[in-house]
What we know:
This protein is of the alpha/beta class and 336 residues long. Helix content is 45%, strand content 15%. It starts with a strand and ends with a helix.
Amino acid sequence: MRKGILLVNLGTPDSPAVGDVRKYLAEFLMDKRVIDIHPFFRFLLVRGIIVPFRAPKSAALYQQIWDNRNGSPLLHFSKLQQQMLKLALGDDYVVELGMRYQYPSIELALNKLKAAAVHSILVIPLFPQYASATTGSVVSEVMRVMRRWPNILPLVVKGTFYNRPLFINAFKEKVQRYSRSSYDHLLFSFHGLPERQLKACDASKMYCLTKKNCCELLTETNENCYAAQCYETARLIAAELNLSRADYSVCFQSRLGKREWIKPYTSSTIQQIAKAGKRRLLVVCPAFVSDCLETLQEIAVEYRQEFTAAGGNELLLVESLNDSPLLIKALQEIAT
């Protein structure tokens, strides 16, 4: 009897055309775990404001990173990860790939596992740190699909791997491709979330964001906090690189809307770094295991321009894990 493995990443438009980007954004942003407001107001905001205005702009950005041969970088590398993990695990496992939004869907991937007559399913969301808007949404969608099956297979979800040694060493290896003399400062930039989503995950309702820097140290109280897990990932990678706390900064990117998101913001952080006299900035994004719009465009283009405008000389983006053998070993370890 074979075991089923479901890898899940966020998703991508089918093409950089405005229509496909509009379709992707609508599905993504209408997810109640992504924009967690009243359904009526979410509909008005997403369908009436964000998608109509954002889709053409986002399509232009996707066109900049789209590969003529391989298409979406995120989908391309996710497929490579699936293939490499399948090879590493062998014939006792069936490995399928699903995207939370768009193609290939989670439902399609789960149906493939069911058709393969696997006796159990292990879900590995490809998000190292837990967030309701990512891993939580994946779990919700998996349950939505499987609850309609006459025979619900044994199911396990591996929710995080932010502190697994192989994952940490995979990013360490990527950073070490740059000599220490080639940069003045290392920046860990993680995907941002609204602060209210951090507070919602605080079971005590008494700790989250009640004091300054409450996320910077992982404890039993905040071990399920997305931001605390991000800081812990950064601390572990920095320790492997023998960096002091003064040698690196942690920040959060991709803010959407005017409400308060996790701070410090990447944009303001890189400006402060430039004003402090740091001229060569190396940026690593350990919330992403595959390069995507947020790394290849937001960091490598937008933030590079901001850094040089603020007085910096060079901003370098560390390639994401993509087809890293150490990442595959980490996934293999999780799967078995």
